[in-house]
Amino acid sequence: MPAAIGQELVGLLPRLRRFALVLCRSPSLADDLVQSACERALAGADSWTPGTRLDAWVFRILRNQWIDHLRRSRTEGMSEDITERPDIVGDAGEGPILSKLLLAEVQQFIDTMPAEQREVLLLVCVEDLAYREAAEVLGVPIGTVMSRLARARKRLAEMTAAA
Amino acid sequence: MAQFHFSDEILMAFADGELDEQMAGRVEQAMANDPAIARRIAEFLRSRRLIRSAYARSTASDVPPALRAAVQAQIDRLEAQAGPQAPSGDPISRSASPAGRWRPALALAAGIGALALATGGYLAGRQGLGTPSADPIAYLAAPEVSRALGSNLSGQEQDLPFGRIRVISTYRMADGSLCREFKLETSAGASNAVACRGRDWKTTFALASADASGSYVPSDGADLVDSYLQKGGAGQPLLDAAEVQALREPPRLR
After folding, report:
1. CATH code at A118?
2. What is the pLDDT of residues B63-79, one digit of tens each?
3. What is the nearest CA distance from A73 to chain B, expressed in angstroms?
4. I need a labelling partner for A64 at 20 to 30 A (CA). Which of A25, A147, B169, B253 fits?
5. Which of A42, A124, A126 sits opposite B74 (nearest CB)?
6. Which domain range does residue A70 map to?
7. What is the chain A residue with the closest CA to B76?
8. pLDDT of A66-81, one tens digit each?
9. Does A4 share its domain with A72?
């Protein structure tokens, strides 16, 4: 069974790492997080329900690992400054419409958001999880997902309205 | 008309396609009557696009080689532990679709009203009946189908008294048996199926689409047939002379 999800897991690595970066904002920490999440996923492959989204399942594992880590280390602070992280801003191929400047602004703005808003933005707007799926990953009611998401997006829309 | 107040959450859910039909209908109506609502929805569409673009795909693909190697090592270790019984990971997979896609595809196909039958008792029990009902699956056992499978080359279409058959491809399975993928369209519906030759041609896998027009076969159906063949160790399809020769072989009595 582990072998069956193994190759899919490898395919998920880029997205797992991106989610990990959103959570912990440190590339080295993110790599550790992804690795331990994969280990956990492989060991527990039998508890994944075939037919459900594998990505959402691993996202949840990864996030739980992160929360465990926070509990253990009791450091809400980051080990590296986010400005030392050039790897998260980019262009999406919708380039002609959206200027690089605007996207950089959006990225900066997302970085200032609380973690609970950042993670829900990523899961829904970037990873295309349904609200219900995101709620399962985050372990919160669907209403919480919606209110966090709406708040974050409203603020973003206001911030960039002039652009 | 009643004035509805729409919360940000509801309008966002509309923009994200998360509302049920009834609620979405109400929002649509309100949107038509009130430009302010349309504007709020447009903002949610825009914010989603902005966020998506900011986290570009290109940045995500940036996995350090060390991380990739570490995860691959974990997988390899587990596979080694699992021993030589390695199940479906046959290296001679005939398509690029990863083995892991098999299960989600199955669920998807079930969701759109397709019916997959890994046959055995069900079809075998029906083969003796000889009186195909309106059920498209039942026709798979008809003698006309068996004849077509024994002689038609891949790609060939043939009209039958109850529909039309098209043989798609021919494979040699891992156990040496000869199997053919084909599509049967009848007035009752269409099926994508695989039949293998023993004493006669026997359908071993069938995916019936409930759609009577037979015109629409979801792509996931092809995935399922693919996965089935892959699991049986089908290599590359037999073409031209190789196919002709395989079809001439005497049936395997077993």
Report:
1. 1.10.10.10
2. 889 999 999 999 988 88
3. 23
4. A147
5. A42
6. 1-79
7. A3
8. 888 887 765 444 443 3
9. yes
